[in-house]
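Protein modeling request. Please complete all fields; requests missing the sequence field cannot be processed.
Requester role: graduate student
Desired output: 3D structure, token encoding
Chains: 1
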Amino acid sequence: MEDQYVSGEYLRKHPTWHIEDSPWKAMQIAKILARNRVQPKTICEIGCGAGEILTQLQMRLDPRCVFWGYEISPQAFEFCKTRANERLHFKLGEIREEENAFFDVILMIDLLEHLEDYLGFLREIRSKSRYKILHIPLEISAQAVLRAHPFSKWRTSVGHLHYFTREIAFDALKDTGYTILDFFYTASSVDLQTPTMKAYLAKIPRKLLFTLHRDFAVRLLGGFSLMALAK
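Delivered output (231 residues):
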């Protein structure tokens, strides 16, 4: 990830590297694998952060599966290396520099929005696995555009350099040579516990509208992400 993502300001605001969200994210990954009958023997996560998503997947998937996490932030690597075991390995470095690296599945979970040249990145890693699973926040919505300020807030608070709709994300994948096999929307803002009453009340109309018309809810209110399986 870019240096902006691992700045001191980011670490101050997110000292846990979002470990608390990892079980939920691992559940979404396991879901898309299961519904497409993909049974990997090797999984790699690029930008693995504290390594908790891989730790959670190791508990959920085939006990013969071997996991690798790549991370370029020394701060995050200090977290993830403590989770290593005989089937869970971590590397401080860039997967693009590993000439012979190849995996059944590569995970890119909340990653692309942090990369300055995400199109070039997608092209470079395409040959390094059979399948790719991507989780991409869909931050462009009618509500966000009308409010305007969320975009600058996301840039400074969480280091997002790019913003996506489902169509933008799919076009990026197709333009870089990928075939989209499956997708669904996820909503941490709906599924996970909210810290304030205001946040709790805000998720009620989002949840109701999503039940009635998923695409419309995503485009109008935002607060959703895209989980996609590609090859």
